[in-house]
Every structure is written in structure tokens, then in C-alpha cells.
Specification:
Strand order of the largest sheet: 5-4-3-2-1-11-10-9-8-7-6
Number of strands: 14
Largest sheet: 11 strands, antiparallel
Shape: globular
Strand content: 35-45%
Radius of gyration: 25 Å
Helix content: 25-40%
């Protein structure tokens, strides 16, 4: 699967008196994705026209943007909630070959050019680019999405790397699913500090060293991230991400907004759409579930999710229409949803189809 996305990012910082924009950029990414076993592979090609980027920035920022053009394509492997850039040697070689071109282009800025190039190459070797993506980029949310799209309304423990470089701060994330139409859902999320798991004295010690502030300073920490994903379940395509973050450390507040929006579908994996059981192969088992719904008014959620997961994407609408016809024809007005061995959720008449539709959409 290959798609064209537009990314926007804006970061503002203020201390109550002075307000300044740290970042304000738009990027175009061509993102190709495929999965083999448990590893997801991404090829991210930067398609940004840097001539359109505002020149109202410092030379250092301008030149770093120019150097960043060479950080493409990024070849990334994502597994077990972590990712690694696998072609960093190629990126370093590209910078090496262009070094003298940069010196000729900016002869009066040779010292700054050399410093930025050296730091960029060292950063690639030391995984600084991965850290930058973890802290600032919208791409980290893209990488997580295959796992997130299967999360129903839930609250999970997590750790955020977006507060202090190199330190995972304990947080909790709440997810809420909202239906948009027959094909798309909106997954809202909010991440806040988990005060019960934060070791504040150690945290304060790190902050004091990092920001070089007096030991007697009172720790002020406020943090939240909230946003949403818009997901086309039928095509299995992520259409949009928005992430809004606010951090207050001592007297400094940093606010950011990041978005990723689908502009164009470049390639669809037809094999994936057709992978799985056909309608004819699955309809017999479907009626076994429907018979149980009709007689016992109950269904095991995990079993049914596994059944739906084995159906080809292109066949799911037809399967769901058959299920919908059965529910409406037999006037099923009540359903008991079994969650594990003990939990039972009672679904009223108004929500029976809605809940079953969510199961079809999440998988």
C-alpha cells in the first residue's frame, strides 16, 4: 500500500511574557507500507518542495531543513512498539557526497555548515533521528496505528517520551471510538500524567540538571496530549491524524499541533483486500453464530472477532448485510456480549447492530 500524505506541525512556546514560534512547517510524504509476519516495513519519501518553505527563519534552521531533504527515503522496521531506521549508512553517504556542494553554495557560512553537517551525521549514528521522531514527529502515531485500530473504548497505561528527552514519563491514555459513517470511524484519545507511577523527586532532579535551575525551585508540571485518528475500515486506510500537546515545566509552556492528512491513494494492496475467506466460505459459520444469537441471545465477543478477522475485506460488507438482515427479520431486541470468562455486557435493542458493526469495523 502506498499513499501521499500532508503533514503540518506548529510549536509555540511562552513564559507568560514572551511568546515565540519554534516550528511552523508543512511536509509532503509518500508512505509505502507492507507487513511480513510481525514486522511492519515503511518506506517514507519526502516529497516536500522546500522552495515553498518560508524564508523568515534563521540560517541554521534554513540549512538544517535543506540537509533534511537528504534524509529520504527513510526505511523503517517497526516491531513490538519500537522502530529503527535501517538505511542510515546510505543517508550518511549522501551527506558526505554533498558536503563540498554545500561549502560552495554558502562560502560565508562555512563554519555553521560544517557544524550542522557534523551534528547531522553523528545524530544518525547515535539514533538521534529516531529520538527526534519519537519526541516531535507525527510519524510515531502512524507507526502505532495498526495496534490502536483494534483498541475499543479503553484506558491503558503508557509512557511518554514527549516530555523529557530520553526519559519515559508514566501516563495513561483513554481511547473512545466514534462512528462517522458506514466506512469510517474516529478514534479519539487523551493522554495525561499518571501521578501514581511518577517518582517526582527523581523527576525533579533530572529537570534541575537539564534546565540548570536552582535546587530550591518548586516543580510545576502540567501535561496532556489529545487528538484523534480517522480510519477507513473498509479500505483499511488511515485518512487523518491530529495530535495536540501542551506541556508546562516550571514557568515555560509549550503548545504544539501536528496533523497528517491523506491526499491521494497511490497504490492499494488488492491481495490484502482479497486475503481471507469468501462469503460462500464464511456464511455457514455465520449462521451458526446467528442461530446462537436467536436462541440464547448471547455471543462471545473474542470468538466472533476472530471469525470476522478471517474474512476478506472485500467480502465483509456482504457478510454484515446478511447479519443485519437476520437481526432485523427476527427482531432481536436484546443481546448479551460475553467478554472473557466472567464479564457480560447487556446490549439493548437500539445498540445491537451498532455494537456488531463496531466489531466488523475494528478488525
Amino acid at each position: 500500500m502506498k499513499n501521499l500524505y500532508q503533514s503540518k506541525s506548529k510549536i509555540i512556546q511562552y513564559d507568560g511574557k514572551i511568546k515565540k514560534t519554534l516550528k511552523n512547517e508543512e511536509m509532503l510524504y509518500e508512505i509505502k507500507k507492507n507487513k511480513e509476519n510481525e514486522i511492519t516495513y515503511y518506506k517514507i519519501t519526502n516529497k516536500t518542495d522546500y522552495q515553498e518553505i518560508s524564508s523568515d527563519i534563521s540560517f541554521k534552521r534554513h540549512f538544517y531543513n535543506e540537509v533534511s531533504k537528504e534524509f529520504t527515503p527513510l526505511k523503517i522496521e517497526y516491531e513490538n512498539d519500537t522502530f529503527v531506521i535501517t538505511n542510515k549508512k546510505d543517508l550518511i553517504n549522501k551527506l558526505d557526497k554533498k558536503t563540498f556542494d554545500y561549502f560552495r553554495k554558502y562560502p560565508s557560512k562555512a563554519l555553521e555548515v560544517n557544524t550542522i553537517l557534523t551534528k547531522a551525521k553523528e545524530g544518525l549514528k547515535l539514533e538521534n533521528l529516531e529520538a527526534e521522531i519519537e519526541e516531535e514527529s507525527i510519524l510515531q502515531y502512524l507507526f502505532k496505528f495498526d495496534k490502536i485500530k483494534k483498541i475499543r473504548d479503553n484506558t491503558l497505561e503508557s509512557e511518554s517520551l514527549e516530555i523529557i528527552y530520553g526519559w519515559g514519563v508514566p501516563t495513561t491514555i483513554e481511547y473512545k471510538i466514534q462512528s462517522i459513517d458506514d466506512k469510517r470511524i474516529k478514534i479519539n484519545f487523551k493522554e495525561i500524567l499518571d501521578n501514581s507511577r511518577i517518582k517526582f523527586e527523581k523527576f525533579k532532579e533530572i529537570l534541575i540538571k537539564l534546565f540548570e535551575i536552582p535546587v530550591t525551585s518548586e516543580l510545576e508540571l502540567e501535561f496532556f496530549i489529545e487528538g484523534y485518528y480517522i480510519y477507513n475500515e473498509y479500505e483499511d486506510i488511515l485518512e487523518q491524524i491530529e495530535v495536540n500537546k501542551e506541556i508546562k515545566l516550571f514557568n515555560i509552556t509549550t503548545v504544539s499541533k501536528r496533523t497528517l492528512e491523506l491526499l491521494e491513494i497511490l497504490e492499494i494492496d488488492e491481495n490484502k483486500r482479497n486475503q481471507g475467506r469468501t462469503y460462500d466460505e464464511a456464511v455457514g459459520e455465520l449462521f451458526e453464530y446467528l442461530d446462537k444469537i436467536g436462541r440464547k441471545k448471547e455471543i462471545d465477543r473474542q470468538e466472533f472477532e476472530n471469525f470476522v478477522d478471517g474474512i476478506a475485506f472485500s467480502e465483509k460488507p456482504k457478510i454484515f448485510e446478511t447479519l443485519k438482515w437476520y437481526i432485523e427479520t427476527n427482531k432481536i431486541g436484546f443481546l448479551e456480549l460475553l467478554e472473557g470468562e466472567r464479564d457480560r455486557i447487556y446490549i439493548s435493542k437500539e445498540d445491537v447492530l451498532k455494537v456488531l458493526e463496531e466489531i466488523f469495523g475494528e478488525l
